[in-house]
Amino acid sequence: MMCLRSSGAGLLVLVMQLGCGAAAQEGPKAYSCMFSEGASFGLEQGVFKGGPTQASLVFDVTDIDMDAQTAKLRFGAREVPVKLVQAISAVHFIEVAGEGYLNLTTIYAVAGNEQSYPAVHSRHFGVLGQPVVSQYRGTCKAKG
């Protein structure tokens, strides 16, 4: 179950609706994510054009520390540190990749669906000085 933390009264009501007690507010310490759909777009003559469909993407989000706002993305044996941003009904994991490019993974909390969370993974980078973006849609499952 993904629980949210805030001092705001409106969010407290949302947390109660999701069934999160005080002891459960930290949420899962890890997720296993599967993105079966992906698309990429590159800039051609000043306009973004769709590229080939991207292959499925699988990775884990581990070592989630809500207080420190940190976590790690694990792609097989490769592990990458990320920043964590808690939102209302979602948590974002932000990676600053080589050359300053950004990768963003968002896992959404959906009331009544604590087994599999909707998720989106976006990559914002460049190739030979040209912008390239990709976005994957899938789900993440809590691990522990």
Structure characterization notes:
The protein has 144 residues and is mainly β. It has a single domain (28-142), classed as Porin, CATH 2.40.160.20. The chain contains one helix and nine strands; from the N terminus they run H-E-E-E-E-E-E-E-E-E. The protein has an eight-stranded antiparallel beta barrel with strand order 1-3-4-5-6-7-8-9. The longest helix is centred in the first third of the chain and has 9 residues, at 9-17. The radius of gyration is 17 Å and the shape is globular. It starts with 8 loop residues before the first helix and ends with a strand.
Highest CATH level, the class: Mainly Beta
Q: Give the low-confidence spans.
A: 1-25
For the record, the CATH architecture stands as Beta Barrel
Give me the Rg, rounded.
Answer: 17 Å
> What is the residue-averaged pLDDT?
81
| Main sheet summary | 8 strands, antiparallel, barrel
Q: What is the total domain count?
A: 1
Q: What is the number of helices?
A: 1
Q: Roughly how many Å apart are the termini?
A: 10 Å
Give a quick rundown of the structure.
The chain is mainly β.
Question: Top keywords for this entry?
Answer:
144 residues, mainly beta, Porin, 6% helix, globular, disordered N terminus
